[in-house]
Amino acid sequence: MKVLHTSDWHLGQRLLQLERQEEFAQALDWLLETIRQEEVDVLLVAGDIFDIGNPPNQARQLYYNFLRQLLNTRCQHVVITGGNHDSPAMLNAPRELLQAFNIHIIGAATDNLQDELLVLQNHDGQPALVVAAVPFLRDRDLRTTLAGENFDDRNARLQAGLTQHYHQLAALCQPFQQQGIPILAMGHLYAKGAVAAERQDNIYIGNRENMEAEHFPDTFDYVALGHIHRAQMVGQCEHIRYAGSLMPLSFSETADDKQVLILTFSPDKTLTIRPVEVPVFRRLKTITGTLTEVQDALARFAAKADTRLLTPWVEVVVDATDYQPQLDTLLREYCESLPLELVKIRIQRPLADGDALRSVAVPDLEDLHVEDVFLQRCVSMGITNEIDQQELLATFRELQNEMADADS
Fold first, then answer.
1. Strand partners, 282
2. Degrees (nearest 5) of the Cα angle 287, 288, 294?
3. Rounded distance, CA 334 to CA 330, Å?
4. What is each CA distance from 62 to 25, 58, 265, in whole angstroms?
5. CA–CA distance, 148 with 175 (Å, rounded to integer)
6. Which residues of 57-98 form beta strands (DSSP E)?
7. What is the reported pTM?
């Protein structure tokens, strides 16, 4: 039995308002070809299939075309779980139809935990693999707010709810474990020790690290995680892993090696895990320095550009001690003849701090997370106490979840 673990496609995502449809199409074509060449039996997609709850039609078309083409491969089963970016209603809408093709969709938790337990059969109709397909669990799936409950109490109850959810599923898996059938779990959360390329921690109210490696029951032979875009093990546990995003979703991810994970179970249930590197479809590059240094670096980068790839996108951060008029125009004109697209220009200005100088970047609104804006608003309203800010932020996240559920 051969399984491919991937996650965090974020179909429909735009980078600085730039359309990425062609990149996503190439990434899914590569994934489809890898499934063919590797003769994968089961595909696991651990959340964040789409970037927003109501994705554009082009993104939906990519998704359904990919699933349609999978029917012509050896892949017998597909398991897709919802992430915090996904709309459960949108994912679940064609669930009954897709089920007929052994494409299993778990968009959100239900009242019946048994719905998350999938017993996948082989060509002979025998149980070959059990998957505890846990989607992103919203706050209401994990806890109820108690009167007088403080911030720390809410966090503790949420973590306890996550751990209990996996242990209850593990208990349901016991009969299959006794039969020697491999058992996998899926999840979309922030595990302790995971390293993110950028801010990806605000998935639950109040706490950054939702679970620890030891919280996952030993019943699971492998835990396929999503949410963190950097591929990695959790807590030095070989069998608990993030596959990472399928391609870089921001300039902060350009240093990451993108990959999918191939799991092979031998007849005696021995598991081998092999990463398969995802090729680059478009180079994203950040260049920092003085104006002269940036221009020289742009020329060197352009000289090495791979013409087989999509046009590279470049952001530059210019160290500007003195104001330079028409810097934006100057750089864009410089890049007109280069085989790249300059998509963003930022200026770092040194600010006096006593006798010392420290360099800070002037932030753009598009660079800020929505919660950063909320916290800045709190400060402007005179709310500077960290505990008070975190309490308000917790309420803000609850309202966001409720609005997202209403929209879906």
1. 310
2. 75
3. 6
4. 7, 6, 30
5. 41
6. 77-81
7. 0.86
